[in-house]
Amino acid sequence: MDEKGYATVRERICAQEERFLSPYAQKSAETKGRAKEEPRCTFRTDFQRDRDRIIYSNSFKRLKNKTQVFFAPEGDHYITRLTHTLDVSQIARSLARSLALNEDLAEAIALGHDLGHTPFGHVGERVLAKLATDGFYHNEQSVRVVDCIEKQGRGLNLTQEVLDGILHHKSSGKPSTLEGQAVSLADRIAYVNHDIEDAIRAGILQPDDLPKRAVQLLGNETKTRINTAISDIYTTSYLKPYVRMSDEMMDAINELRSFMFERVYELANVSIQERSERMLTQMFDYFMKHVEKLPQSYLRLLEKDGKERVVCDYLSGMTDRYAISVFEHLFIPSTFSLGGIVT
Predict the structure, then answer these.
(1) Does residue 183 have a pLDDT over 50?
(2) Contact call for residues 245 and 253 (beta carbons, < 8 A)
(3) Which of 50, 126, 196, 284 pairs as cysteine with 108 (C-beta 3.0–4.6 A)?
(4) What is the pTM of this model?
């Protein structure tokens, strides 16, 4: 025991949460637990362990080579699915800290929220949604990744609060914790703002193109808009049983989002829509007919899940470049003869 009478570091952290966090925060000691019981860690709370498990997972590592908006951009500073995830994590942590919520829980949800995203961004998600009989939704797939696919099918055995936040992070979701609500807002704040930066960097937009009313309310620079949004959420939500943005600021964020769909997202996706759809469709058909060609770790999933779901698992887990590599291996011969000349 330490001088305060705590047997473990974890117990000391839990006691600090009781003293300093909002009455509406999710305390680590009050977690609903995991599907499979485990001995508690001496040094970390359950939410801290979840964060660490996500960071060290293979699916998290692959996010660095998955498209956010712009596919294979010529430049080192475009956002990938990994840098988007880190943006969301940072904003979610800022919100949780300012609102006296559980920062560890918010961070774990944020780091895991896009683990199930497909290669080629939302284009890939739409293609798999069309191919799969039961549809495909990246938030549901993110839960499936941490529950059923990671660790050779054993899963990460995350807490129920983290799984709930990942599942409900989309704007249509209803997270059961305030930390989950904070991540959902952080996701929208992050992608609208960094996608604007990327569009300007790509020459698709000029700063003056942005909707005037939204810029007037939120600011004309990324850092200003993010700070304005966080400040508004704090003012609206501090010591309240919810995390939300004021109606005026939410309207401004949604106006920017609609503008980006009209002027950027559809345009950016045109260049990869046809190619990615062809690649994913042909690979889907191939593996549905030759399921034995799937990696061994995915074949094990066939024992409890249908063939179609497991094929979607494999395709959605691919990075952009791995998907292209597999497609080329399956469908494009490395050399072919034309009139006796190898080309």
Answers:
(1) yes
(2) yes
(3) 50
(4) 0.93
